[in-house]
Amino acid sequence: MNMLFNRKAIIEKLSTLIDEKRFIHSLNVEDCAIELAHRLCVDETKASIAALLHDCAKNMDIEAAERLGYELNIFQNDKWLYRQPALWHAQLGVYIAKTEFNVFDQEILSAIECHTTGKAGMTKLDKIIYLADYIEPNRSFSHVGKIRANLKIDFNKALLEAYDNTIYYLTRRKRFIHPRTIIARNEAVENYYKQN
Questions:
Q1: What average pLDDT score do residues 121-137 get?
Q2: Tally of CB atoms within 10 A around 154
Q3: What is the spatial distance between Cα 35 and Cα 48, in angstroms, rounded to a whole number?
Q4: 40: Cα separation from own chain's centroid
Q5: Burial bucket for residue 14 (CB in 10 Å: 0-12, 13-18, 19+)
Q6: Which of 26, 28, 27, 39 shows the shortest CA–CA distance to 155?
Q7: HSE-CB for 174 with a 13 A CA cutoff
Q8: What is the Cα–Cα distance from 97 to 14, expressed in whole angstroms?
Q9: Per residue in 145-178, pLDDT tens?
């Protein structure tokens, strides 16, 4: 990979942008992402950077996040994103990764951008960050143990279960499901059945 990776500098700056709980979460996601990247023959440095920065915009003030979202036109053609502020940090994180951390690698930025919703045509790195965020050790929601266990055996099955669990959680609470999640889940079904 043709980029200078200074993990120490990233960590130092990241610790000033997010709270301690989110910082620990990011380090845990990094550990999981590197392990998955190694197993799937994906660039571990890219996995490390994407994992560390995936939540770099998570602690932005909601009003500042909304202003930045409008400035960057991220809501313009996506009414579902606008209606779900909990998802904004993924899109805004791409901007922060570029402006604060000088990260311009498109694979890394893509993994940051889709780590909450998924999207069509996800790369292995995209999927690794999505799942690493989902299964990191401090996650304790229902079914996470099953997803962790399945991840050791079948990556595509674990990914599909993560989407299914997310969709189940959102539908039970009468919340919006971003269309990108439906598309990503359908592709995960397709990939699962292709291999089985």
A1: 97
A2: 14
A3: 10
A4: 17
A5: buried
A6: 39
A7: 0
A8: 10
A9: 999 999 999 999 999 999 999 999 999 999 999 9
